[in-house]
Amino acid sequence: MHCHDFQVVLQEVPGEVSLCFSISGCPFRCKGCHSPFLWKEGNGTPLSVDWYKDILEQYSSLASCVLFMGGEWHEKQLIEFLQIANKSSYKTCLYTGAENVSQTILNELHWVKTGSWNASLGGLNSLKTNQKFIHVKSNTILNHLFTKNQNL
After folding, report:
1. What was the pLDDT predicted at 26?
2. 113 and 93 in contact (C-beta within 8 Å)?
3. How many angstroms separate the CA atoms of 124 and 146, rounded?
4. What pLDDT is recorded for position 150?
């Protein structure tokens, strides 16, 4: 599993400061994707457990969530990294273009964003989006957290 990019992000998981790992090898290749560089498997550097743990430790008093942009196609490795985050008291989230994610992955997540990018429908901030931001434990769709400034 290769990580193309690591960032601290503030908007992808409402109410959380998230450590975001962008994983390469995305099989969905959505038309209009903002990250086509993630399509090629092996782009970036191998995500090592040691480096990952160092990042989690470095940000332990500053961040509250670990977010993976993709990676579900490396299920076993992704689960390992999610478990490390959970054991380190981080909340966890996955952004995927898939409509469904395996239960094994869901068991390690607090939130999941599902659905491919469709420019005519927009992202999570659009009232007509096909994407869903879901609180996993309650299976509640929380898209309203992204559309707060629009008339509902």
Report:
1. 87
2. yes
3. 6
4. 57
As for how many domains the chain has, the answer is 1
Angle between helices 75-87 and 49-58 (to 10 degrees): 30
CATH of the domain at 75: 3.20.20.70
- Encoded tokens for 124: 């999570």
Contacts of 126 (CB under 8 A, 6+ apart): 147
- From the list 25, 24, 21, 93, the residue with the least C-alpha distance to 56 is 21
How far is Cα 148 from Cα 152, in angstroms, rounded to an integer? 8
pLDDT beneath 50, residues of the chain: 152
| pTM of structure | 0.93
**In DSSP terms, which residues pair with 70 in a beta bridge?**
none
Which bin fits 71, alpha (ψ -120 to 50), beta or left (φ > 0)?
left
Residue 113 belongs to a domain? yes
For the sheet with 140-141, list strands across it. 45-46, 2-9, 18-23, 65-69, 91-95, 111-114, 132-135, 140-141
Q: Which domain holds residue 28?
A: 2-145
pLDDT at 149: 66
